[in-house]
């Protein structure tokens, strides 16, 4: 599965409403994939939500050193493909980070995203984190 920004937030912070669901999905996953744009967005989101900076940075360091998580470092071809995807889908509000995720997921044959973001469903992927209401 792809670990998205919102999924990492739910996984890391037990105060998040979907924390238990995120932990269960994470444990079940045979593949865990993320990329440096997600990590950058995660740090910014956690900062905006006023979570402890030390906790956030420790989590990121642990994530990057975790042998069970593959972190892709986005290069120019992936970045350009993501921009092309955004140009093609100008009717959507996808972020550049979303577009990079979609490109990587297609390239790797990954269908599931640890995310609360509806954009994954709009692009044909499975969003694993949904609230009960």
Automatic annotation (TrEMBL):
BP terms from Gene Ontology: rRNA catabolic process
Pfam short name (any one): PIN
PIN domain residues: 1-121
GO molecular function, one term: RNA endonuclease activity
PANTHER family in UniProt: 23S RRNA-SPECIFIC ENDONUCLEASE VAPC20
Identification of the protein by name: VapC toxin family PIN domain ribonuclease
């Amino acid at each position: 599965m792809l670990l998205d920004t919102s999924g990492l937030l739910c996984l890391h912070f037990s105060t998040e409403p979907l924390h238990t669901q995120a932990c269960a999905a994470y444990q079940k996953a045979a593949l865990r994939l993320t990329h440096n744009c997600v990590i950058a967005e995660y740090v910014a989101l956690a900062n905006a939500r006023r979570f402890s900076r030390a906790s956030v940075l420790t989590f990121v360091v642990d994530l990057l050193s975790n042998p069970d998580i593959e972190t892709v470092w986005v290069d120019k071809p992936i970045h350009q493909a993501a921009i092309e995807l955004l140009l093609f889908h100008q009717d959507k509000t996808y972020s550049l980070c979303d577009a990079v995720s979609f490109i990587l997921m297609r390239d790797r044959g990954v269908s599931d995203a640890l995310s609360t973001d509806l954009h994954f469903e709009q692009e044909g992927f499975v969003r694993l984190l949904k609230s009960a209401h």
